[in-house]
């Protein structure tokens, strides 16, 4: 029996020392010291011993029990301490580490320049008007002096929803809405999307953006048009920027002009960028045709006005030196991230 007790003490001590987690330690406690444990099993055999042997064995058994119990409680304390330290290490927070920045979006280059142009016009007393992209033929063409079968319609082929309803080909349609709803003096710009059934290439897209301008009042002349556009271009491209008006034809203006802006690359000298011209074509403009005014209920013998329409993509491409319009619509983050 003495041998058995020594045996238990030895195996239990070894098992307790090499134990590495609390649950296993508890299992060892049950195995050796529990009610059905190995030590208890031995104590149950005490009855078989002689009266002299019994107290000796009893004392020995108690010693073994006491030793194992204290080993277990020491081990338990050590394991709990280690678990706590590991938990603290895992949860530790270094408050001196730099924070994680949330990914910030930014404005699209088309929006940046549109905002800039809006600011310039707001500063000149204009307001911003909005119009529908799905439009009646009447507003897109007819009221702008482009009756059915007018040849100029061919250059603005678009997407028809019904025979009378289409995706607008130009923001000029907003001129008609504004003049129908507002009496002069009128000073508005109207930025927005327009559509044409053009094939995609470096300078064409079936969807692009225009900014329309319209001023109607008493005594408005071509000089007001030129002064307004010159100021716009100087704000966009620098104070030394000059513009040039060339005679042109638009059905809704008379006289009409195409407006060129001095080449940003050679400042009018003539270079590769402007193909030796010194100027680059940028927009269409003119004096609002009396027929258009009258059609909107404005007396053309009292009032006159100017209008213009500029392509936003062209201005953005010039501003940032972008050679391919497709870049503006592909939404490649590596491209878009460059603009602030
Ligand atoms: N709507 C014309 C276009 O898309 C541009 C334009 C020309 C607008 C002359 C005007 C204007 O307001 O007066 O080509």
Question: What key attributes describe this structure?
Answer:
two-stranded antiparallel sheet; seven-stranded mixed beta sheet; rod-shaped; alpha+beta; 11 helices; 340 residues; binds 3,4-dihydroxyphenylalanine
Explain what you see.
The protein is α+β, with helices and mostly antiparallel strands and 340 residues long. 41% of the residues lie in helices and 19% in strands. The protein has 11 helices and 9 strands. It has helices at residues 2-18, 22-33, 38-43, 53-91, 109-123, 137-140, 172-181, 222-237, 290-295, 312-320, 333-336, and strands at 127-128, 134-136, 165-167, 186-195, 207-217, 243-250, 253-262, 279-288, 304-311. Strands 1-4-5-9-8-7-6 form a 7-stranded mixed beta sheet, sandwiched between helices. The chain has a two-stranded antiparallel ribbon with strand order 2-3. A hairpin with a 2-residue loop joins strand 6 and strand 7 (253-262). Helix 5 (109-123) packs across helix 10. The longest helix has 39 residues, at 53-91. The radius of gyration is 44 Å and the shape is rod-shaped. The mean pLDDT is 91. It binds 3,4-dihydroxyphenylalanine (DAH). The site of 3,4-dihydroxyphenylalanine has 11 residues, from strand 8 and strand 9.
């Amino acid at each position: 029996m003495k041998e058995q007790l020594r045996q238990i003490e030895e195996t239990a001590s070894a098992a307790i020392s090499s134990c590495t987690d609390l649950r296993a330690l508890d299992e060892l406690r049950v195995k050796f010291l529990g009610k059905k444990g190995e030590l208890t099993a031995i104590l149950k055999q005490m009855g078989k011993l002689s009266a002299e042997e019994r107290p000796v064995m009893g004392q020995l058994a108690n010693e073994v029990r006491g030793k194992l119990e204290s080993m277990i409680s020491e081990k338990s304390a050590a394991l709990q301490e280690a678990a706590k330290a590991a938990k603290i290490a895992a949860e530790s927070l270094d408050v001196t580490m730099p924070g994680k920045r949330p990914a910030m979006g930014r404005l699209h280059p088309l929006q940046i320049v549109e905002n800039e142009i809006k600011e310039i016009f707001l500063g000149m007393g204009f307001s911003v008007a909005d119009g529908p992209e799905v439009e009646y033929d009447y507003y897109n063409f007819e009221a702008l002096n482009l009756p059915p079968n007018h040849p100029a319609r061919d250059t603005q082929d678009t997407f028809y929803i019904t025979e009378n309803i289409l995706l607008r080909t130009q923001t000029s349609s907003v001129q008609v809405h504004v003049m129908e709803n507002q009496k002069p003096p009128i000073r508005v710009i109207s930025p927005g999307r327009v559509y044409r059934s053009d094939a995609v290439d470096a300078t064409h897209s079936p969807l692009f953006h225009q900014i329309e301008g319209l001023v109607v009042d008493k005594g408005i002349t071509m000089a007001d048009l030129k002064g307004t556009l010159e100021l716009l271009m100087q704000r966009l491209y620098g104070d030394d920027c000059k513009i040039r008006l060339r005679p042109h034809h638009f059905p809704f203006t008379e006289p009409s002009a195409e407006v060129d802006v001095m080449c940003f690359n050679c400042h009018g000298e003539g270079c590769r960028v402007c193909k030796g011209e010194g100027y680059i074509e940028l927009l269409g403009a003119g004096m609002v045709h009396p027929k258009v005014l009258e059609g909107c209920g404005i007396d053309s013998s009292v009032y006159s006005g100017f209008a213009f329409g500029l392509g936003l993509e062209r201005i953005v491409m010039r501003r940032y030196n972008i050679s391919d319009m497709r870049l503006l619509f592909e939404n490649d983050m590596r491209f878009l991230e460059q603009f602030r």
